[in-house]
Design goal:
Length: about 60
């Protein structure tokens, strides 16, 4: 399934949100990087949860 690149994703372990507009400073992911473009070994910068633990946030910003 394909999602819009601007969709935000939330960690199912600690509720940290990955926002593509902000990227991830910890993993040196630049702003503008969609969640789907993150490497498979990327993990939550807060709790180290795997990418598979993230759920798409269904909101209308």
């Amino acid at each position: 399934m394909t999602f819009p690149p601007e969709d935000r994703w939330e960690c199912g372990v600690c509720w940290t949100v990955y926002d593509p507009a902000e990227g991830d400073d910890v993993a040196q992911v630049p702003p503008g990087t969609p969640f789907q473009a993150l490497p498979e070994d990327w993990h939550c910068p807060n709790c180290d949860g795997s990418k598979l633990r993230f759920m798409r946030i269904d909101d209308d910003r």
